[in-house]
Design brief:
Number of domains: 3
Shape: elongated
CATH architecture of the largest domain: 3-Layer(aba) Sandwich
Number of strands: 15
CATH superfamily of the largest domain: HUPs
Order of helices and strands: EEEHEHHHEEEEHEHEEEHHEHHHHHHHEE
CATH class of the largest domain: Alpha Beta
Largest sheet: 4 strands, parallel
Radius of gyration: 27 Å
Structural class: alpha/beta
Mean pLDDT: 92
RNA sequence: GGCGACGUGGCCGAGUGGCUAGGCAAGGGUCUGCAAAACCCUGUACGCGGGUUCGAAUCCCGCCGUCGCCUCCA
């Protein structure tokens, strides 16, 4: 398999440290408020990476952190009169609900920053011992210029960074480029005891400490959004490698941003569409498909029509499922699997992989129309869709109240099935007026009827 | 100002030198009482200008345009 390594700015062969086991660390959210659609994209992109790695035979340890202490959470807590823990917990639940609905696997581990303070303090102490960090008025800063490789991920030259106008100089810093490892406590803020007095950790140190704690130095893949490349990931590398003297992460993968009206969705500017609302408005699997149709590294534009389009496209797959068996697996058509794999091996060309699936669907439909056996193709479609995490099985249908409809039509039926049976009786009697009235009535309740050679089916649209 | 992406048919979007991606929408057809679903057919695109090559959407140069990062951010 080949993946694009941001560190090298190139698609390169992926060779994990351990030939059987892959370690992945993904930067998770700051749990300050509800997730937006962009968070879902990142989670899905790396969920597919995970599923694919498992499919080609690796066992994966997948860690995604939870940032549950930071300025914004504190701000929100103060505004709402809640504790920071309450704010974080509520937001975390919303993230989990969204991620689950999208069909993502839950991470192997989901460590929280506040549960790893000791590890962070230990790493900071090591950095001070090595002379690359310094304490100043209860704060601790990392001395950026002391780390030779600084800028190797983001390709920034230290002297090109516009330190004057955008980076806060900060009186306690020796150099405007230095960043905080530890912040002295302010009244009313969450705080922990440390060798430098009460305080809380800086943002970057948590990922370094947790990644190394759970995966060890030199783990395989570190992921996140492109917006994290600088400064977050650059700083993670600096502090981790300065502390350990060895490689922090071997491959860096970054997903592209989700844009709204041509601009990046961003929580802080209020320029976003929330994930949970979108998952109400559209089939969650359509949202997933919407993400998947664009390569994970490219910017993706949100639009209602794009989601509608994805939903129609998904409808094709759901219709396919209705006429086939979800159970087939072992005898999948090898040609389809190989083509699928060739695309996925190429830095997760999911869009290309989807084209293989859709071609297989068309071929299988043609065979079924001709009365031929299509089990191999169906099995291949089932298997590959599962690798992409696209669940096209019938959604559970809530009880639909059809009593009013039955009464209006004068049909003695108490269920959808009863109405469908009544319609078929009407059709046998060539009473198409009644038959169509039943169908139209059900359509108004979002129930679509399909008459097939094997009888009449219905489903929720 | 620095660094970096990207510009593909009505729309969305693959494509890492030669072999009609795929999806959605549209038109025509087959099937069906009519639908739904499905299948078949139709649409010849690659920002602009140069160059390399037998051959470029794919490589090189220039230009135009859009976006991202340089500040919290998936």
């Amino acid at each position: 398999m080949q993946i694009y390594n941001t560190l090298e700015r190139a698609v390169v062969p992926f060779v994990p440290n351990d030939p059987e086991r892959v370690t992945v660390y993904l930067c998770g959210p700051t749990v300050q408020s509800e997730p937006h659609l962009g968070h879902g994209r990142s989670a899905v992109a790396f969920d597919v990476l995970w599923r694919y790695l498992e499919w080609i035979g690796y066992s994966v340890v997948f860690v995604r952190n939870v940032t549950d202490v930071d300025d914004k959470i504190i701000l929100r807590a103060n505004e709402s009169g809640q504790t920071t823990a309450e704010v974080a917990s509520a937001a975390f639940d919303a993230f989990t609900r969204g991620y689950d609905k999208l069909g993502n696997w839950r991470p192997t581990l989901e460590p929280r920053a506040t549960e790893n303070i000791d590890e962070m303090i230990a790493m900071i102490e090591k950095l001070i011992d090595r002379g690359v960090a310094y304490e100043s008025d209860g704060d601790v800063y990392f001395s950026v210029r002391s780390f030779e490789g600084y800028g190797k991920l983001s390709r920034h030259d230290l002297d090109d960074l516009r330190t004057g106008d955008r980076v806060e100089p900060g009186a306690q810093k020796h150099d405007a480029l230095d960043f905080a490892l530890w912040k002295a406590a302010k009244p009313g803020e969450p705080q922990w005891e440390s060798p430098w007095g009460a305080g809380r950790p800086g943002w970057h140190i948590e990922c370094s400490a947790m990644a190394v704690r759970y995966l060890g130095d030199g783990f395989d893949i570190h992921g996140g959004g492109t917006d994290l490349i600088f400064p977050h990931h650059e700083n993670e590398i600096a502090q981790s490698e300065a502390a350990s003297g060895t490689t922090f992460a071997r491959y860096w993968m970054h997903n592209g941003m989700l844009n709204l009206l041509g601009e990046k969705m961003s929580k802080s500017t209020g320029h976003f569409i929330t994930l949970l609302e979108s998952l109400e408005e559209w089939d969650p699997m359509a949202v997933r498909l919407f993400y998947l149709r664009t390569h994970y590294r490219k910017p993706l534009d949100f639009s209602r029509s794009a989601l509608d389009d994805a939903e129609s496209s998904l409808g094709r797959l759901r219709a396919f499922r209705r006429r086939t068996s979800p159970a087939l697996g072992p005898k999948a058509e090898v040609g389809v699997l190989e083509e699928f794999r060739a695309h996925m091996d190429n830095d997760l060309d999911v869009a290309g992989a989807l084209s293989v699936i859709f071609e297989a669907v068309r071929a299988a439909n043609a065979k079924l129309d001709a009365g031929e056996d299509a089990d191999d193709l169906v099995a291949a479609v089932n298997e590959t869709l599962a690798v992409l995490g696209l669940d096209i099985d019938d959604r559970t249908v809530d009880d639909v109240d059809i009593s009013d409809l039955a009464a209006d039509l004068g049909v003695p039926a108490s269920s959808v099935d009863g109405l469908v049976a009544a319609r078929n009786t009407a059709r046998d009697d060539r009473d198409f007026e009644l038959a169509d009235a039943i169908r139209d009535g059900l359509a108004a309740l979002h129930i679509t009827i399909e008459d097939t050679a094997d009888g009449t089916r219905w489903h929720r649209d």
